[in-house]
Amino acid sequence: MSTQPYNTALVTGASSGIGAAIVGRLQQAGITVHAVARDKERLAKLADETGCVPHALSVADHAAIAALAEEIEIDVLVNNAGQSRTGNITNTTPDDIDALVDVNLRAVLHLTNLVVPGMIRRDRGHIVNISSIAGHYAFAGGNTVYHATKAGVHSLSQQLRCDLYGSHIRVTEISPARVETEVFGRLIGDMAEAKRRFFDEYDSLLPVDIANSVAFAVLAPPRMNVSFMEVLPTMQVVGGLNFAKKKPDAA
After folding, report:
1. Strand 125-130 and strand 8-12: pairing?
2. What does each C-alpha distance from 77 to 35, 36, 38, 119, 121 come to in angstroms?
């Protein structure tokens, strides 16, 4: 007999990759998962495969998200939806800035704000935020706005633990490094090229690895809160010391 206290979960960004893997894993654990994403056809396929409850909507649509949060009682919220872009702050467009902030951070804040009061009333719940190592480390080639939004998710996760002190509501941040997903293909516009460039010669994480990390935290005994988990491929490290050489004096 299961001792886990949760009956329902809501997973955003659920139609593919990490989100779809999380949906399947939590369904396997006996939790009814409400899967949120924009792609109606993929959600329908996921529902057929896993038994999840599909909701085809955008996390940036606050009215639709608010209506959904009012309709269902959510025990586990997995904030997984996210976007990225190429480039850095010098060549990022205003539209890209708005899109990244809207999906990666504003939607996470709004959804958490909508769901947490019910968890407090029931004194039961779990917030799982999927962030990124980009939120903790600076490295060349990363999109500045993406890094900033993921740093915001990291800060939110830490502050939520303070806000919820004394309750039985758990907060987990899972921070992955490179995971083999379609995101890389969308970034450069060619999944085959992305596979060649980022994955063929590297032993990257798979979406199931992150799903299993989520399940470990969610299915842990109620006395135990996995507050932060950084998940990297064995062969990938973060950090390092780069030192640019002096430029020759201009003639």
Report:
1. unpaired
2. 11, 11, 18, 10, 16
Residues assigned a catalytic role: 146
* Strands across the sheet containing 8-12: 53-56, 32-37, 8-12, 76-79, 125-130, 169-176, 228-231
120: in domain: yes
Q: What pLDDT digit, counting tens, does each position of 155-189 carry?
A: 999 999 999 999 999 999 999 998 887 676 566 66
2-6, 145-149, 226-230, 240-244: the lowest-pLDDT one: 240-244
Residue 234 lies in a domain: no
Number of domains in the chain: 1
- For residue 203, what is the domain's CATH number? 3.40.50.720
pLDDT tens, residue by residue, 14-66: 999 999 999 999 999 999 999 999 999 999 999 999 999 999 999 999 999 99
